[in-house]
Amino acid sequence: MLVGVGFAGVLTISLLVNLVGYFQAPPEPTAEEGFHRHPKELALKTDGPFGQFDRQQLQRGFQVYKEVCAGCHSLNLVSFRDLHQLGYNEAEVKAIANQWAIEVPSVNPETGEAATRKAIPSDKFPSPYANETAARAANNNALPPDLSLMAKARHDGPAYIYSLLTGYQAQPAKLLAEFPATKTPEGLHYNPYFANLNIAMPPPLTADGQVTYADQTPATVDQMAKDVSAFLLWTAEPNLQSRHKSGLAVLAFLIIATVLGYLSYRNIWAEAKRKVAPKGALDPENKVKRTRASKKAGIAG
């Protein structure tokens, strides 16, 4: 017991010392606290329990990834044949795989040496770099992340991606006035939607019309950012529609089961009357009965 009291005392003293230190020398405000922004609102057709993927938007987002993002970012968990879910037929998937700019690592069967080959539908999307060292060497020591699960790896995933892609801007004068030491270093880019405000990735979407959509949708920077965000939501959650359908089926089952349970209760127990003792244990009549029962059983007192 004394050990427990002593331990509690030490913890109390430690807490008080830290509280005094906090109020005497509170932590200084940081640039991130004052200038970091939460992601913008992004409305997608997948929102809500009845949401479904927009295949045209997913195909547009895939085009943006292919023409803009694939040069630096991989999709290691996605296969070419998964593009069937976006509405591409078998011939189109084979053509996309065969014409992919980055070939798949392989081995020359004649010499046993490392080689590359054209991709086939069963292959994963190949990484643009041979390894992490090569990736960092080509990107000022920054490592471009794999995008397969990016929409799940970040809070407000698609909205975060959309905000990041459209959030590049000049560093505010107010920020430099309040925090002179936070001037964006050379080789980095100011983006208030990035955690520490400075990101190594240059703006990938720089002008309207950077890609040409097959469905004639105007390829504004905002539209391209929305489309690739929707595509990356699909790469992270390809079974999202199935989960929505399963959830609705389970919800319907629970509602029906609840109604049936209530009706059964009403049918079986509605006419039954609960029997409640009208008198308590201290009632004189009950005391007499208890005393007689105790004597009969040979229980003293």
Any overview of this molecule?
There is one protein chain. The protein has 301 residues and is mostly helical. Helices cover 46% and strands 6% of the residues. The protein is built from eleven helices and six strands. The protein has helices at 2-24, 31-35, 55-69, 90-98, 132-138, 150-153, 157-166, 173-178, 221-236, 240-269, 284-296, and strands spanning 75-79, 104-107, 114-117, 124-125, 189-190, 198-199. A two-stranded antiparallel sheet has the order 1-4. A two-stranded antiparallel ribbon has the order 2-3. A hairpin with a 6-residue loop joins strand 2 (104-107) and strand 3. Helix 7 packs antiparallel against helix 9 (221-236). The longest helix is centred in the last third of the chain and has 30 residues, at 240-269. The two termini are 40 Å apart. The model has no long low-confidence stretch (mean pLDDT 89). Keywords: Heme, Iron, Membrane, Metal-binding, Transmembrane, Transmembrane helix. Pfam families: Cytochrom_C1 (PF02167).
Number of helices: 11
The coarse silhouette is: extended
Share of helix, binned: 40-55%
Q: Please, what is the average pLDDT? A: 89
- Tell me the β content: 5-15%
Strand order of the largest sheet: 1-4
Distance between the termini: 40 Å
Tell me which oligomeric state these chains represent.
single chain
Number of strands: 6
Radius of gyration: 33 Å
Low-confidence stretches: none
Secondary-structure-based class equals: mainly alpha
What is the string of SSEs from the N terminus onward? HHHEHEEEHHHHEEHHH
Largest sheet: 2 strands, antiparallel
